[in-house]
Amino acid sequence: MSDASADSRVTLRTLRQWVRAGEKFPMLTCYDATTARWLWKGGVRTLLVGDTAAEMILGHDSTLPAPMSFLVELTAAVRRGAPHAFIMADMPFGSYHCGDDQAMASAVRFLTEGCADAVKLEVDSSFAPLVERMVHAGIPVVAHVGSRPQQVRQRGGYGSVGRSQREADEIVATAGEMVQRGAAMLLVEAVPAEVSQRIVKLAVSPKSTEPVPVVGCGAGPDCHGHVVVLHDLVGLTGWHPPFVHPVAAMGEALEQAAAEWAKDVKSGNYLAKDHPYRMG
What we know:
This protein is α/β, with parallel strands linked by helices and 280 residues long. The protein has helices at residues 12-21, 33-41, 53-56, 68-81, 100-112, 128-136, 152-155, 165-180, 193-203, 230-233, 250-267; strands at 25-29, 46-49, 86-90, 118-122, 141-146, 185-189, 214-217, 225-228. β3 (86-90), α5 (100-112) and β4 form a beta-alpha-beta unit.
């Protein structure tokens, strides 16, 4: 992709250039410095430090228990591993729901302590004033619309949205309002392609001075970028959403490696003949 060499910092300006040039960009979730370094080497220039860390790292059954300080620390780690990547930080459940002042403080932590390039909020129209306030403070906001995992308890589970005309219109209207309030990017999750097509169209309207990049998460082919959970993509999870097409079986490879290590140790052969340290 243009303007994204191993030595150049990827910024919001870079993403806008990709949108103008019609270049799709891949994004993956990432939670540690080592993985970030390898993803960058593989050509992934945009990373999401997602609240899915609550599930993938901490073993919870939803994203809700992701601690704020934990995600800030992970964001900083990913930055150290991929210093030139565009890093989006997920604001966890509760970090922006208990008053705008708290939300502002949380977002500032992600930018200052976590060194993120942008913060992501799961929004409906009621969050418009908060998004505008953040934008005025200089905080790049990614407005997450469509399916919102932080609503899992209220919805009784995960699933796609926007299948009815009413629901689709509501999602598109929310996306439009977020763009009007200054959102730097949109993330659209688990909606029919017709919904994301409408959102992409409004996000790159000729009336706008700058295009608003749209990242899809199971939202159809028209989005400018696409993100999935890394663990799903590489085969580390027992179940993955239907929009993820695994490209590796790292879970099985890890299992085999563990079995080989266990076999070597239990046999008594480990270091029996090749211990590297000698006295004298």
